[in-house]
Fold this sequence. Notes:
mainly alpha; 2 domains; 5% strand
Amino acid sequence: MKYISLILIGISLPFVLWSICDILPTFDDFTTLQSPQFTSIWSKELLPNDSFWRPFDFLFGCLLGWNTSLFPTLNHIIIILGHTINTLLVYLICRKLNINNVAINIATLFFFFSPASLGATLACDGLNQTYAQCWGLTATYCFLTTAGKKRILLWGLCIMMAALSKENGLAWAVLPPIIAYAFNQLDKRKTIQYFSIGIGFAFTYFLLRLSLKVSDSINDEYIESTLADHLKDLIQIIVYNWLPIDYMSLLYIPERNWVFVGITLAASIPFLLLLFIKNVSIWKDKTFILLVACFFIVASPHLITLVSIMHNYAPLSITAIIIACLVNKIPADKWLITAFSLFLAAAFITDIHHTTNALNSGYLGKKMAMEAIKQTNKPVTHAYVINIDDYTTPKYSSFAVRPIDAFAWGLSVRHYNNYAWPIHIKDTTLYSTEDVLIKKITDSVMNAGFQHVWIVSNKENKVISVP
């Protein structure tokens, strides 16, 4: 069936939304621009500021500030909407590239259900990553379906929107002509011309950014420092994009389960083996080589700086198009369908496990915040948080956070008080549970005018209040 992938995704979409919309914020979900913002809409956040220029994040945060009850449900709805649009664009681009129906449907299902998307689609702050890719794919589709001045205008506009969604979106500036050339829809001369125009779009963005910048500071936390770290990032982004194994069971020690790891690995391998055994000479194929180059180009902003679990999403659509290209070259027989069905089953297991843990992390944060509210017993304007961190409690990205991260420096309390109180929150982190030290800090901050102290420990998984 021509539209079988879209039909299956449409059937699953209500269940996806139902499960994801219950994921509650933790950790830095409360500090990003995609959380409620209460400053003027004409704030400096609309302009290049520090390492970032993400005006759409800020405008979305202002919308949440007008109605805080929308956070984080609206975030999840908009992110899943973006991921669904991206899926449709992968489908349409593959069709425009004259790929056969079986390959298109496999690539579309792969993209929508891939565990590599979870870092963005399960997060409360994944809008920028999702829509940077959305505008990049839209730029590619417009490039493939238009010509002349209209092509350049739409392509350039979409690239600017991608870059303003998130900086890595700028990598899409040069991808459309490379993809068109890979599938023989441009000759070499035209490709070079359009590639140069794409570089021009990037320069225009940087010139605009430099002329409007508010601050020059760079956050060093988002830059890897060693060659080993960059190599690890490279391996991570490739493996996560291609293998849907249960990383939660592999990497999160409290839930390490070699059976699930083995099952999902065994279910994944036949499809990948089939793709490359049946395409043994693919490494000499122009289309394949250029698509691999596109993969690294779109991943390059993260490979140069840092690759988190969310960043695995950046090159995922290119991975899907590569898979479509590989499937397009082999017979669409029962072996292919069976192998991909097993691959998809592995993705489902991984998706469900990660979603369940993300839900539990959010519930833990809410439980601790409500416990602090109950113990405090009355509104306070100034609160202080003492985090007891022994650095031995395991965590796994945003899917399984530690109690002190779920509590989010007391910001979760403000959230579940509808942002009414506390107005001022400060915190400190101790690596010792020595009572004398805790009492000394508590007495000091209470004397400084703080009305309440919350003590949060990873070990005890609860909040202790000091009136």
